[in-house]
Amino acid sequence: MESNWTSPWLFLVYSVVKPIFGTLILVFMYLIILGGVQDQTLFSFMFIGNAFYMFVAQTMFGVAYVVQEDRERFKTLKQVYIAPISYFMYIVGRAISKLAITALAVVITLIFGVAFLNVGVDLGATDWLLFGVGLFVGLLCVVVIGVALAGITFLTARHSSGINEGIAGLFYLFCGVVYPMTVLPSWGQTIGMAIPFTYWLEMMRRALAPGTDFSAISGLGGYSNLEITALLLATTVVFLIISVAIFRYADHLARKKGKLDMNSTY
Amino acid sequence: MIDWRLQCRAIYGRAYPRAIGALREPSWMFFDIFLPLLSISAFIFYYRALGAPAVYEGFVVIGGAMTAFWLSVMWGMATQFYWEKETGNLELYMMAPMSKMSILAGMALGGMFLTSVRAISTIVLGVIIFQVQMQLTSPLLLVFAFIITLIALYGMGMLFSSLYMFWGRGAWHLSNLMQEPIYLVSGFYFPVKQLGFYVAMAASIIPITLGLDSMRQILFGAGANGLLPVVEEIAILCVVAVVFIIAAWYSLRHMEYLGKKEGRLVLRSQ
Q1: Distance (Å) from the C-alpha of residue B1 to the closest C-alpha of chain A?
Q2: What is the extent of the structural domain holding B59?
Q3: What's the Cα-to-Cα distance from B187 to each of A6, A46, A163, B184, B220, rounded to whole Å?
Q4: CA dist., res. B10 & res. B241, Å (int)
Q5: Which of A194, A233, B54, B140 has the least C-beta neighbours within 10 A?
Q6: How do the domains of chain A map onto residue ranges?
Q7: What is the pLDDT of residue B22?
Q8: Using one digit for the tens of pLDDT, what is the confidence trace for B88-139?
Q9: Does A173 contact B41 at a Cβ distance shorter than 8 Å?
Q10: How far, in Å, CA of A124 to CA of B235, rounded?
Q11: How confident is the model at residue A244, as a pLDDT?
């Protein structure tokens, strides 16, 4: 469904160009200020964090937009909703397809970084257990937050893109995606510590680049791998409960107020 | 003979919903001012983590606010006729007796007003929150550079609009695609000269490249590391503005003819 508007090759290019150029903006900013990749730790920190954040930005936004797209553009939401399937699982399915598409962009970005920019990813030394657990829990978290945003989209006319971008922007700002959290004021760091993606990105960095010591700059150096995993799991469970509750309540409210077939012709 | 009164009424009529829309739904103001501030804040913290000179924070504030204009041109101008086709308004425009250029001009004026209010609010908030230091030498030149940038930019939007009118869902995806690449080559977050002179000159086909560079030079002086002298950049923008508007007029006529000939003006959900 995601790619039926064009040929597979064009869709492939489309899927990777946007996130890769987003990364290149950061790379150029880095190179302009520091003149080269002398500080490999900071550069790898930024590059790996930004690469995995693509999942958050692309998938969360895409999942929530599914509702608006089905309802307003294709006008198929009612038919999908009354079909003998769980709409919740339908949204999860759409999210998984977006994850798969984004994964391609993430892999290409990382390959580019390792090949041309000396990013410290070392697959030979990768902690695959940490990577596997972290990736699974992190992506689960991306999907459940996306589902919550999809629920909110049921109730809004055309605010969904603003809400999605706002939430993704807050995560980008507070989770130490491209800069260490220690740059933020203390209240900003506190917010960041309550969000699962902070721990998820730290896990991805530690797992993929075990030869690079991020502990001095990340602000999470005092936590062991096990503690980071536990914090990721704990915050994800909290977000999972909140997200499912938001979706269920929004779904109920949307049916009660007749919002499922709302058409703002926007 | 052109009925100028009718054209002016069409311009006003199309600009009106955009200008008044902000007042009817004030929550949009929150999203359009607050959201750019999030990315601006993130890029400023990134520059701070890199130890960049303070002037770069000013570049980010101005560039980040100007993204609103690029998004307005891509989504509010270029894609607009495609939306109108999808919602069934396009055939009404075609039947009405005014020039379609008046519709585009109204869209552009309304979009300029609405986006200017939001972008300037973002700049003011960004300057206050991050205490950006500016050395404004010529306010009049700044206003002129800003206005001519908008005219050239929305002229480009008018040209794109006529092209997009002919396309299907690809138009939506093309607009989506033309964000990050343009932010990079137009130097939204750093002086475009840093990309190299020839790359920067090639990127100058997008009016916001030279517009941003000239405004930064006026606001931050030599620290802006400008591509060309301000006067030359403004002169190029004036030429580009005229070229885009004339090209939009020809393109619109041609696309309308093609659309009628091939029956695609009312073809939806393609």
Answers
A1: 35
A2: 4-262
A3: 30, 20, 27, 5, 15
A4: 22
A5: B140
A6: 8-256
A7: 67
A8: 888 888 888 888 889 888 988 988 888 888 888 889 999 999 999 888 889 9
A9: yes
A10: 56
A11: 93
Residue contacts between A and B (CB atoms, under 8 Å): 96
Residues of chain B neighbouring A163 (CB-CB closer than 8 A): 31
Measure CB to CB from residue A180 to each of B49, B52, B169 and give the nearest one. Answer: B49
Centroid of chain to Cα B71: 6
CA angle B263, B268, B270 (to 5 degrees): 95
Within a domain: residue B268?
no
Q: Look at residue A155 and tell me whether its pLDDT is greater than 80.
A: yes
Integer Cα distance of B268 and B270 in angstroms? 5
Q: Which two tokens stand for residue A147?
A: 């589902």
**B57 vs A19, more confident:** B57
Q: Residue A136: its pLDDT value, please?
A: 96
- Residue B269 is assigned to a structural domain of this protein: no
Of B38, B86, B87, the CB nearest to A173: B38
- Comparing A159 with A19, the larger pLDDT belongs to A19
Could you tell me which residues of chain A have a Cβ less than 8 Å from any Cβ in chain B? 5-6, 14, 17-19, 21-22, 24-26, 28-30, 32-34, 42, 46, 73-74, 159, 162-163, 165-166, 169-170, 172-173, 177-180, 183-184, 265
* DSSP secondary structure, A39-83, as one string: -HHHHHHHHHHHHHHHIIIIIIHHHHHHHHIIIIIS--HHHHHHS
The one-character DSSP state at B73 is I
**pLDDT at site A6:** 67
Question: In this structure, is residue B270 part of a structural domain?
Answer: no
Exposed, middle or buried by CB within 10 Å (0-12, 13-18, 19+), for B186? Answer: buried
Residue B183's contacts (CB-CB under 8 Å, 6 or more residues apart) are A21, A25, B63, B67, B70, B189
Mean pLDDT within A73-89: 86
Q: Which of A148-152, A186-190, B206-210 has the lowest mean pLDDT?
A: A148-152
ipTM value greater than 0.85: yes
In this prediction, residues A75-79 reach a mean pLDDT of 85
Q: Is the Cβ–Cβ distance between A5 and B170 less than 8 Å?
A: yes
